[in-house]
Amino acid sequence: METVGHLIDGKSVIENTATIPLINPATGICESELAMASAEQTRRAIEAASKAYPSWRATPPSKRAQVMFRFKSLLEGHVTEISDLIGREHGKIPHDAKGEVQRGIENIEFACFAPEILKGEFSKNVGPGIDSWSEFQPLGVVAGITPFNFPVMVPLWMYPLAIVCGNTFVLKPSEKDPSAALYVAQLAHEAGLPNGVLNVVNGGKEVVDVLLTDPTIKAVSFVGSTPVAEAVYSKATNEGKRCQALGGAKNHAIVMPDADLPNVVKALTGAAFGSSGERCMAISVAVAVGHQTATDLVANLKTEMSGLKVGGPQNTNNDFGPLISAEHKEKVINFIESAEAEGAKLVVDGRSPELSAEDRGFFLGGTLIDKVEPAMTCYRNEIFGPVLCVVHVDNLEEAMKLVSEHEYGNGVCLFTRDGESARYFSDNVDAGMVGINVPLPVPVSYHSFGGWKRSLFGDLSAYGPDGVRFYTRRKTITQRWPTLNTMDTTSFSFPSN
Fold first, then answer.
1. Catalytic one of 112, 243, 280, 413
2. Which domain holds residue 120?
3. How many CB atoms lie within 10 A of CB 263?
4. For the chain: N or C, fewer Cβ within 10 A?
5. 473 and 425 in one domain?
C-alpha cells in the first residue's frame, strides 16, 4: 500500500512513524496511508526553512517571480494529474477539481507581480537634504495550516505569495486529503524553488502545536472551522506570532420579489450543492422576501433539484460527489433530522440518493428545507453539506437583520433587478464579501478573501494586497548625507521639517 510522506529540505521523507488510513470517500475503501509527522520531524522542516531563508531573502524579487512563472506553467501542464488526486482523496468531480486548480493558479499569477507589489514608496527632500522611503521586508519562516475542502487552492492562497515576498514556508495540509498538496509542492521544486524554501509536513495536532509554539515561525495562516480558527489565533498570538485564521460561514442569498427567478434557481442550485456544499462560500440559506417569492422559489428549486446527479468522480456527468467522511455525513444527517424535529418542512430529502453500484462511500443528495426559523439548529450552525435552508421574511430590512445578527459574516448575496436596493444592500450589510446577482462572490486573486465577525480572526484577509501586507513588514528609512564639517548644532527639541 502506498504511503504518503513529507517534503523536507527538498527531499521526500517517509520514516517509521505512525500512519493513518486515507479513505477514498466515493468508495469508502482505504487506498493508501499517511505517515504522521512527529514533533521532531516538524522541527526539522522548520530548521530547513530557517537555513534557506537568508539566501532566499537576498534573491531579487524578479528572480523569485521567475520561479513562479515556471511553477504556473507546470501546474497548467499537470491539471489532470492534480485533479485525479483531488478526486481520489476528496471525491470532487473532475470539472470541480479543475476549477479549484485554476483558482489556485490565479494566485500564482498574482505572485508573479512580485517586483511591482514589493515596491516601496520614496519621498525626496522630506527635510533639508533628507530623503525617506519605505520597504516591504519579509518576516522569515512562516507556516500554513489548510483544510480538506480545497486541498490545492487554499495552500496556493498562501505559500506562493509568502515565498515571492522573500519568506520560507512550512505547510501542513489536511490529513484527510494530503496527496494533491504534496504533489503540487513537488512541482514548485521542479520549477526551481531552492531546497528548504517550501516544506510540507503531514500530521495532526502534534504538528500544529509545534508550528504554533516554535519561536522560529513568525506568522501562521489558517483556514478551517471557527472553533479551531479561534483556538489557533489565540495560541499563535499568545506566542507573539502574526496570525490570520479564517473560520466558518453561514452564507445567505436574499431573493427579492423582482429577481429573475429562473436564473436565481440555477445559481442557488450550483452554489448550494456544488462540491457537496463543502465550501466556505457555499450558499446554505436562501432568504425569500415576500410570501409569493418564497412559494415560487421553493417550487422551482424542487423542480431543478430533481435533475441533480450524485456520484463518484469517475463519472464526469455527476454534479457533485461524496462528503469527506462517514463521520461528517452523519453530522449533516443530524442537522437534517433536527430541522424536521424543530418544525421545518423537508421539501427534498437527500438522505437516500440514487447511486451506481460502485459508489459505496459517503454520499448525500441535495436537500431542501423550507420554513426554517433563526432559532433552529440547522440555521445557527454551519452544516457544510448539500443542504439549503429557506427562510421567509417580509422585506429587505428584515433579511439584512438576519445576516447582521448571525455570528458568521463571511459572504452574502442579493438577487434583484433594482439598483437602489443593491446599492443600499452592499453598503450596509454586515459581511466581508458581497455578491449582487453573483452567488459565490469569491474575490479574484488581486483582491483579498476574508469575512467579518467570527468568520475571520486577525486584521488581514487572505491573498491579494492583504496577503502582501500579512507576509511582510513595513520598514521606513530616513537618510541624509551632510557635507563634512558642516553638521548642525546640537538640538534637544523634537525634529520637524
1. 280
2. 2-247+455-477
3. 12
4. C
5. no
Query: In the chain, how many domains are there?
Result: 2
Specify whether 30 is catalytic: no
- Is the same domain home to 256 and 308? yes
* DSSP notation for 346-374: EEE--SS----TT--SS----EEEES--T
Sheet order of strands, 6-8 included:
11-13, 6-8, 198-200, 168-172, 141-145, 217-223, 242-246, 456-457
- pLDDT score, position 479: 95
Number of neighbours of residue 122 by Cβ within 10 angstroms? 11
| Pair 380, 279 in one domain | yes
CA–CA gap between residue 53 and residue 58 (Å, rounded): 8
Task: Give the helix ranges, DSSP H, for 277-388.
Answer: 291-305, 326-341, 377-380
Q: Classify burial at 376, counting beta carbons within 10 Å of its beta carbon; exposed 0-12, middle 13-18, buried 19 or more.
A: buried
pLDDT exceeds 80 at position 495: no
Alpha-carbon Rg of the chain, whole angstroms? 25
Residue 484: pLDDT band with limits 50, 70, 90: confident
Neighbour count for residue 343 (Cβ, 10 Å):
11
Residue 29 lies inside a defined structural domain of this protein = yes
Residue 268: pLDDT over 70: yes
pLDDT tens for each residue of 209-260: 999 999 999 999 999 999 999 999 999 999 999 999 999 999 999 999 999 9
In terms of DSSP bridges, do strands 242-246 and 456-457 run parallel, antiparallel, or are they unpaired? antiparallel
Torsion of CA 398, 400, 403, 406, to 10 degrees: -50
Q: What's the whole-number average pLDDT of the chain?
A: 96
Q: Closest Cα partner for 470 from 456, 478, 459?
A: 459
Residues pairing with 34 in the sheet: 4, 20
**CATH number for the domain including 44?**
3.40.605.10
Report angle CA 127, 132, 135 to the nearest 5 degrees: 170
- Domain at 289, CATH number: 3.40.309.10
Cα separation, 250 vs 230, whole angstroms: 17
Q: Which of 197, 160, 230 is nearest to 45 (CA)?
A: 197
Mean pLDDT to the nearest integer, 156-181: 98
Is 136 inside a domain boundary? Answer: yes
Residue 489 lies in a domain: no
Same domain, 226 and 239: yes
